[in-house]
């Protein structure tokens, strides 16, 4: 395991694509917390959620860094290097996020 992230060049200022986990909203499913892809703005659910859509998005796209998004938590995580990442800022939410859990 790396002691630092080697993917910080992929961090972008993004606009969240949905007001909740994109896939859970389509399924009518619940989530626990949300994660924001800092490459493309995909909003997915965390690993404590039933479907783990943020991790699935990483596996499908290779986009390595997520932000703790709901609520905005100020931290990032690199799936590849398995380390916390200093994002330098937090992404504002586009509106109220529906609560399921």
UniProtKB/TrEMBL annotation:
InterPro entries noted in UniProt: Znf_RING/FYVE/PHD (IPR013083), Znf_UBP (IPR001607)
Pfam families associated with the record: zf-UBP (PF02148)
State the superkingdom: Bacteria
In this chain the UBP-type domain maps to 3-101
Q: Which residues form a coiled coil?
A: none
Question: From the Swiss-Prot or TrEMBL record, what is one GO molecular function term?
Answer: zinc ion binding
Q: Which residues form the signal peptide?
A: none
Give the protein name, as stated in the record. UBP-type domain-containing protein
What organism is listed for this UniProt entry? Rhodoferax koreensis
